Amino acid sequence: MSSYIVGVIGGGEDVLQENYELAYRLGGLIAKEGWVLLNGGRPAGIMESSARGAKESGGLTVGVLPGRSSSEASAYIDIAIITGMGSARNNINVLSSDVIIALPGKAGTISEIALALKNGKKVLLLNFDPGSIFAEYRDTGLLQSAGSPEEAISIIKAGMGSCD
Amino acid sequence: MSSYIVGVIGGGEDVLQENYELAYRLGGLIAKEGWVLLNGGRPAGIMESSARGAKESGGLTVGVLPGRSSSEASAYIDIAIITGMGSARNNINVLSSDVIIALPGKAGTISEIALALKNGKKVLLLNFDPGSIFAEYRDTGLLQSAGSPEEAISIIKAGMGSCD
Amino acid sequence: MSSYIVGVIGGGEDVLQENYELAYRLGGLIAKEGWVLLNGGRPAGIMESSARGAKESGGLTVGVLPGRSSSEASAYIDIAIITGMGSARNNINVLSSDVIIALPGKAGTISEIALALKNGKKVLLLNFDPGSIFAEYRDTGLLQSAGSPEEAISIIKAGMGSCD
Amino acid sequence: MSSYIVGVIGGGEDVLQENYELAYRLGGLIAKEGWVLLNGGRPAGIMESSARGAKESGGLTVGVLPGRSSSEASAYIDIAIITGMGSARNNINVLSSDVIIALPGKAGTISEIALALKNGKKVLLLNFDPGSIFAEYRDTGLLQSAGSPEEAISIIKAGMGSCD
Fold first, then answer.
1. ipTM of the complex model
2. Which residues 51-90 in chain C show a CB within 8 A of chain B?
């Protein structure tokens, strides 16, 4: 059976220091659970920081890249999937993840949250308030907020015992 | 030179009557300008209504479909582009449009607004308030609101004379 | 109902004069039938020549482009579909075409023939002998050769009356 | 730095016993080199057999799936990349592989060989003769034949020392 994959999304640029740190800590926790971390693969922002956190805790990292060359991958990516599809690869990120954790980001991150919800994937927001726009997905429980990386992991583990 | 293409996006399901009517009127206005209307192509919601408006005013309509068969296209679509890519086709919709007009919708529509902004495409909101999430794109003018279909057309025509 | 679309594929570079001429003539014949011509959209080779033939006979042309900008489209393309997906767009070309006509080309063209056959689309070869590789698809009739553009049109028209 | 990835392609159906065995042996050899094996991920044909060979020699396997669910993956796939893109995912397979080894297959396999060559990726044919169609790529050395799985591995290792 294939590995359990946690997608971590968030900004590539203009990332606050506290979010780098949350992403790093989150990556480490994912690795310690034995889960695979998947992200957008570039050497920037939440992608790089979460991958580094996972690698430094002995985890396995997958980067799904928008460009055409594996040379664009972060040094903390083990498996570089080269799509050559630009932002259309965002849909692959969410389909390939069993669950998504979203840190703050701009339009790229928001597109991934939206594509995840559209495809029925659970999204956990970490230190990120997108306002009212996804309210109906909060009502159904598909979208939730986690107060910390540790709580995000707990929510995922609680959900793995259930049927959804 | 290829035709000027206006992408019209919005919900496929649970669409208010007033938004059907706005989409229909908008489709007609796009056709009267001699522009091509592009949408997601399915026989539902804002897609169907905007395409019908364009066709009944003599316009040309392009539908970029998520599935694998042209039989999934609305009867008001002239050119069915069959992607077989699911929601990854949303990125093609925005890249192929010179400008996007967004009526209310859920996660699919929001993903297209986000992908458009990510790709630097201008988005005009029509009767749709996504809250604060895209605030920074309002500041740069990439995201604007139009008070009516007529105003959306005026904004587009004003922009065509400029350099951006 | 959406338009009948004929995909024309073939080399972008190193194209023999006789194949430019066949592509031009073929484009004109497709236009005269009232069919839409679809190709890869670039200003080169069989793409440009077939689109020019269609336009100069009053037809409608669709180009499905690999890059991210409509400025990459041939001047003879009416509707530029911008995929930003590189060669992955070849699958969209074949899915969107009701039938494919293939002139000589290299790996890109061969990939489109193969993707068409994989997806169960009929392919007519025009002045192109790919050797034995697709023999089994000849046996089932999915792959055929046409002796001229006129014969290709006749084969398509004969097939439209049948049930397959 | 991300792992070295060898793509193994070949038929999903109607596969001869000798090719199952070659694929299994090849998968094992790839694993023993410490390389990652990437394929189309489905539980069938060359895909399943090569992945099983790699897993039973302690390797890591990546499957890039055409459908929308990880439940479609072979039991021998560690990392399931879910594209939801059908055969358009074939381009991702070749872009993500540092080198491709092709066993016999039909149109799907041929499309991947063609896409690989189009993208400038080296392809090694194993027990597979596609006829004359790719002759020019043989002349440049981009396409080669290997007489056995062992020889395929040797060719790859020889190439890793060079600059191309």
1. 0.96
2. 60, 62-64, 68, 70, 73, 75, 77-85
For the record, the structure tokens of A157 come out as 């583990």
Contacts (Cβ under 8 Å, ≥6 apart) of B154: none
Query: Please, which chains are in contact with D (at least 3 CB pairs closer than 8 A)?
Result: A, B, C
Q: Do the chains contact at B73 and C3, CB–CB below 8 Å?
A: no
Which range, of A86-95, C47-56, C90-99, D152-161, averages the lowest pLDDT? D152-161
Q: Domain spans of chain B? A: 8-22+34-160
Q: What is the pTM of this model?
A: 0.97
Of C15, D36, C17, nearest to A80 (Cα)?
A: D36
- How close is the nearest chain D Cα to the Cα of C110, in Å? 6
Residue of B95, B97, B93, B103 lying closest to B35 (CA atoms):
B97
* Chain A to chain D Cβ contacts (< 8 Å): 70
Bridge partner residues of D5 (DSSP): D36
Residue recorded with tokens 């069989």:
C46
In the Cβ-directed half-sphere of D19, how many Cα atoms lie within 13 Å? Answer: 23
Secondary-structure breakdown of chain D: helix, strand, coil percentages, each rounded to the nearest 5: 45, 20, 40
Q: Determine whether domain C8-22+34-160 maps to CATH 3.40.50.450.
A: yes
pLDDT digits (tens, 9 = 90+) for D115-148: 999 999 999 999 999 988 999 999 999 999 999 9
Residues A25-40: pLDDT tens digits? Answer: 999 999 999 999 999 9
Q: Which of A71, C84, C114 is nearest to D98 (CA)?
A: A71
Which chains share 3+ C-beta pairs under 8 angstroms with A? B, C, D
> Are the beta carbons of D46 and D10 closer than 8 angstroms?
yes
Residue D52 in 3-state DSSP? helix
